[in-house]
Amino acid sequence: MAEVSFPSATEEQINEGKSLAWLSYIWWLCIIPIVTQKENPFSMYHARQGLMLAIAETVIGAAGVILGVIIFWITVWFSGPVCAWIWGGLVGLVMFALAILALIGLIQALSGKFWKMPILGDLAEKWFKGMV
To answer: What predicted TM-score, i.e. pTM, was given to this entire model?
Structure first.
């Protein structure tokens, strides 16, 4: 397993940052710490992950709805709505997993801990490298 490294932050920065870092995991509210605490490495670390999570939730939710309608209209003639139900269930499971990640991140931010989300944490580091 690869070693996980976190940005360095003082205890004071962590205490100051956790006042808003938890907002990073509530959908697009991640913008608040991005705008208000640019210089705080703790807040920005969580904001970067929260932004990645918000993008994933938006893309998966929109794609789920659009593809769900398409799947329904294509398959309704020969299989009824079963394929659309299966698709909806799969999208629902993925969204539930993202909600669990958001809850864990929120708790970690409130606790003053750095935490790297599986998969999305690596993507956030690559995509938003200049944020921290």
So the answer is: 0.84
